[in-house]
Structure formats: C-alpha cells, structure tokens
Amino acid sequence: MLAIAAIIYQRQSKHEDSVSDQEKLEKILNALLKIERKNPLEGSPRAAIGYGGCLDVLVNATDILKCDTWDWDHVKPSHHDTIRSYLEFQETFVYFFQHGAAAERYISSKEVWHSLTKASQKINSRREGVGGNAPLMSLRFAHEGWQVLLGAMMSPRLVELLHQNISFAGSSTPEDDLHLILEYPLGAKCGPYEAPRANRFIVHSDENNPKVSALTPFGEALRTYNPHLLIVSGLQMMDNFPLQDEEKRGILKSISYQMQSMGPDTQIHFEMASFTEKEFLEDLIKYIIPHADSLGMNEQELPNLFSMLTYGNVSILSSSNPRVATTLDYMRRVFSMLSNSTGRPITRLHVHTLAYQAIVTKKGSSWKNTMPATAKASLTANRHVCGSSNVNLEKARLIMDDSFSTSQVQQERIWFNERKPVSCWEEGNLDFCIAPVLVCTEVHQTVGGGDNISAGGLILQV
Q: What Gene3D superfamilies does the entry give (predicted)?
C-alpha cells in the first residue's frame, strides 16, 4: 500500500509541477505582451539598411552531410578561418556543432562548394528564401510598419519578394549569391557528437557581397532619404575573402564616410557577426564601430569584440549559453571602452542569447522605451524560430534561472518575477534591462534569428 501511495503521490507531484510550469509560462507571456504593447509605433519612421543580399538555401545539416559515412579516424573538431577542402569543412562544422555555436565560413574551394550545393538539391526538406542581414532586417522593419531603404545587390526574382514598404536601392544581378544554411535541432547527432542546442552553420562562396557592390547606389539614394535610423550589416562577407587588405580597407572607409555623412538626428546601428580575421576586425574597430551609436550581437560575438578590444586577439568560440552575470560584465567593459569615441560614442548595446535578451542604454541618449524593446526582442526570438506570429506555449520552455547576479564581482542578485519578467535597473549613467526568452522547442529555423531579434529591439527605441 505504501508503494502504491508513493507512486500516486509521485504522479500527482509531477502533474502539479507541469501545471505550475504552464501557469508560469502563461504569466510570463501575458506580461511580455502587455509590455510590448505599452508603447506602440508612432507614425511611419524611416530606416536605411545596407549591405548585401543573397538566396538562402536551408537544409537539415544531418540530412545533407550523412555523418555516419564520414571517416571519424581522420575527422577531428578543428577550426579553419577559410575552408579549402572537404576535410576542413567537416572539421569546422563539427567544431561548432559540438558546442551548438552559430558560425559562418567562406569556402574558397569551388569543388567543395559545388559538391555541397549539388547535394542540397537532392534534399526533400530544402527551402529557399530571401537571405542576408540587410534584407532580413528590412523585412522585419517593414512588417512592423516602418518605411525601409534597402541597399543590396539582388536579382529581380528576390526583389519581387520584398515587402511593399521596402524601396530597393541597389544594383541588379542575374544570379544571386547563395548561402547554404545547415540547420540542426537540439540533440542532433553527427558521428560521436551531439548538439547541445539548436543552431546553424552557414557556408558561402560569394562573389558580390564581399565587394559591397550596392555601396554606391545605396549612398546616392541616402542623400535624399533622410532616415531616422541607418543600419550597417553584412560586413562579415568580407571576412577571410580573398581581397587585398588595402582593398577591404578602402571599402570600409567608404562605408565609414557614408556613416559620417548622416546628420545628428539619424541614429546609426552596426550589427556584428562572426569575424575571425584579426586584421579585418581591427579595421572594423577603427573605421566602423566609432561611428555607430548602437551595436547588436550574440553570445559568441560579444566575447570576440571584448577580446579584440582588450587583448588584440580573436576569440573563436565561447559558451553558447552564458550566465547573465558574465554577459553583463562583458557589456559594461565594452560599453566603457567604446563610450569615449571621438566619432559617435556608443549609447546602446543589445546582446541576444538563447535564454535572454539584454539591452543597455546611456541615460540622456535618444534611445527610448528600453523595457518594451527588450520584451519585443524576447518575443521576436520565439516568433521567428518557431515560424509563427503567435507564441504557442506548448512549444516553449524557459531556460533562464529563477535569479541572476548582475555581476561576477558584486554578486547582487535579482529574483525573477513572472508577472514582471523584464528586469530593469540603473547603474550610474546606464540603464539595464534583461528579459527571458520563451525558447522555441519545435524549431522552424534559427537562421536570421539575430537579424530579426536586433530589428525587433530597435523598432520601439527610435
């Protein structure tokens, strides 16, 4: 009888925990939605977004790679800045896959590139769509009611797929650059390795995007557009691309002049990405970042920028699910190092991770609605990854802890309140906000997540 009673109690306890968890998620969602609606968009603001565009081809990584056929005596996790052989491709993929870390790499070997694109054509689940940081961010802004000027090089086929609120200010090409998006879910297996979270590995062999071919027509259109917000993105296409350093530097200088030509009423945001070329990242810090008011990045890109600013070297791989305190300490240090710029001192920093969103703004700056923006970024993360405008709590979970330290040094703790899920506080001349993400458990896509999340956060702050 005691054994039966114990089993019944155990089942009841599990049921009560399940109900309790569901109620908690409902409270969090309702509170986030209420905060998101607190400051609706006013008027029809204008954003100008560059540079580049492509055709995204999405496939399931394990379907196309067939890891069980690999020679695992020779394939070992290893990082390569540029992929020159199929073995280097395998090693680089596994290197990031085992950590569930997003990465993007240029394939210099046309033989490897053609073999992968040919294999992708045989995958039944293959999907195609508009790709590239600038087009994806443009689509998010347009869907939210903004008017957008897009600077990209795209085929007429892709231009036709753009939202009616988007004005195309680029050059036409008969054939788009193609990006192969190798998506994988939590728990996916490749040989002896298992993915600790859903993510993607992106490969490309671009011809147009690394040369920022849309720079001139976009600049001409900018002269009369007078945007409220200028976004610079897609510069990772130049990373490890076979251009001379001086040629890359010349392109960055032209973009820098474009940024500096904006009046004080135009806010400027730079969207970070996966950079591994030390000299190129140094040039970004010299020519681009000093002229941006705002930076957006993920949990891999923040430590990389910090490492370059502090030690002068590149950080290839970091935790795919960092503690809040770790992220906040990085953000403080980066903010401090960039706030004394002679161009546009940094006044906003947005870091998006799987578990939470973090936005820091400087008091007295023109950025507004930080709490609603953080809530919107959180909701956008679920909506995009699940592929639905509505958040389905049956396909969501919370992985953020019940409390977090604001720093690894001071150890001040903030306890999570599901009725007030966005935690905001002041530190000197900075305002901080943290929001939990209702993590999507049935992933539709991870690619474009950062672009949509960053755009979601910016939409309410300008």
A: 3.40.1190.20
CA 62 to mean position of chain CA atoms: 23
Q: And the tokens for 27?
A: 């409270």
Find the helix or strand (DSSP H, E) in which 56 lies. Answer: strand 54-60
CA distance 78 to 95: 5
424 and 362 Cβ atoms separated by less than 8 Å? no
Structure tokens at 35: 């905060």
Instruction: Show Cβ contacts of residue 393 under 8 Å, excluding neighbours closer than 6 positions.
Output: 22, 25, 26, 29, 438
Query: What confidence tens digit (pLDDT) does each residue in 100-120 have?
Result: 999 999 999 999 999 999 999
171-223 per-position pLDDT tens digit: 899 999 999 999 999 999 999 999 999 999 999 999 899 999 999 999 999 99
Question: CA torsion sign, 119 to 125 to 126 to 131?
Answer: negative
Instruction: List the one residue out of 158, 125, 164 whose CA is nearest residue 142.
Output: 164
Question: What residue has token string 């109620």?
Answer: 23
Chain position carrying tokens 């010299």: 286
Token pair 């507004």 is at which residue? 368
Q: What would the DSSP string read from start to end of 288-328?
A: TGGG-SEEEEETTHHHHHHHHHHHSS------SS--HHHHH
Cβ atoms 147, 44 nearer than 8 A: yes
Q: Are 180 and 78 within 8 A, CB to CB?
A: no
Alpha-helical regions (H) of 226-369: 245-260, 278-287, 301-311, 324-338
Please state, in angstroms and rounded to a whole number, the distance separating the CA atoms of residues 152 and 157. 13
> Phi and psi (nearest 5°) for 166?
-100, 125
User: Would you say 49 and 138 are in contact if contact means Cβ atoms under 8 Å apart?
Assistant: yes
Q: What is the CA radius of gyration of the chain?
A: 22
The residue among 45, 454, 52 whose CA lies nearest residue 226 is: 45
- Helix ranges, 177-243 (H): 215-225
